[in-house]
Amino acid sequence: MRTLLLYPLFPKSFFSFDKVLKLVDRKALIPPLGLITVGAILPQEWEFKLVDRNVQDITEAEWDWAEMVIISAMIVQKEDFLAQIREAKRRGKRVAVGGPYPTSLPDEAEAAGADYLILDEGEITLPMFVDAVSRGEPRGVFHAKGEKPDVSISPVPRFDLLNKDAYDTMAVQFSRGCPFQCEFCDIIVLYGRKPRTKTPAQFLAELDRIYELEFDQTIFLVDDNFIGNKRNVKLLLKELKVWMADHDYPFRFMTEASVDLAQDEELMELMVEANFNAVFLGIETPDEESLAVSRKFQNTRDSLSEAVEKIVRSGMRVMAGFIIGFDGEKTGAGDRIVRFVQKSSIPVALFSMLQALPNTALWHRLEKEGRLRDKLGNGNQTTLINFVPTRPVEEIAREYVEAFWQLYDPIMFLDRTYRHFMMMGAPRNSAKISRRSLSWKTIRALLIIVWRQGILRKSRWKFWIYLYKINKHNPKVLDQYLTICAQLEHFYDYRQIVRNQIETQIAEFLASEEAEQESMLKQPEKQPEKQPESAAAA
Question: Whose CB among 21, 198, 276, 537 lies 3.0–4.6 Å from 253's, allowing a Cys bridge?
Fold first, then answer.
């Protein structure tokens, strides 16, 4: 079976990093780990080609070659996902789909023409799909029916299908699921609240394959909460640090974790020893009332700013996610988030308006209350809130735009980035990484950063002062510091996109509200029904 694994386009978003990728001559931030895992689970006598549309378009030869097209997508990829289904069907191809978006809203993929819906997790449903195809069945919907697979049976992904020079960061996975119950999160809906992990040997086999293929990028563990199963994570890290030392530290790692990481010094120490240099935290908001409303109780147990500082001082850079628009939220939430980010010296803060994602506890509650406006929140940073909030939509949106603008003001960004790296201390394990020779692409990127941030912008004096101080007092983080400085090139432009698109949507929203009110006013008043004379007499 000649199988085309197709990954749809991402819209321009916070994590598209367009300008940064151009600086280092990469096409996309991260590869489609789900699809190369699908390629490993399917029968290996099948033939595979991978086309990531964020890297390259599909050629006519690839369309002609394919007997089956398999498309995976997240909700944010909806537009191109549906377009590629239609394009494949126009060409007479059989189409199978899977991933978070069709699992959450299968009817939309089916309406677009998909023949096979491979829902839930592929370790269970892909064999069902293969059996159906072998029997000659032209269509099918394959559910896990609540069952969660043992991920220790998952094979090494087909990393060989990737164009290794196209991606800025490599992707691997150790666990699925999260033990917490955040109301707005779809991870626990898709993967459950009992974290399932691979074995250390299994994970190291994946690293062996990546090392063998000579990938040299930072590796992102895409686990939605890497420390959800702390016992198993510690077992992995103890073996990983040995593997890393034996291979002369060929990789840096980054991942996502809950804030309670700061409570476990042994875990932080093991992560640093294994060469984890960055972690993404879902902080969401400094407002404790909003955290309680959203059931993110794990963020209310200790001081959030102290937790961030502990993690940074352990030797890991912190990125963090923030959300505005929770029920009961008081005016000024955007400004409070900006103050928290500046105080905590978090360089990269992912910020968005709350979206009710399909089948989450928030989605079901709002649907029951009749407050959903659009049942498909897409998680992008340029989309208005998709439900009726407890304070005016316009107020939330304007706070959001202003906060986003301030967060990526060049001077504010450089101030907190400098403080962050001075707090971090020197990396412990940088042997092979620090010896890599500077390529022309790296030198060119550095020159562009120096020109824009050190000469053109109002931030130029800060840029040179901080660069000098980092080089003098903590020189081993200089490459990481400059990498984060480079990310400002993306955020500096993206904040204008956020402003433009949100303000357009605010105007459209207000116009529709006004039109609706005018329509209601024009409706004739309903006259009370005339009572029968006998009733009036009574």
Answer: 276
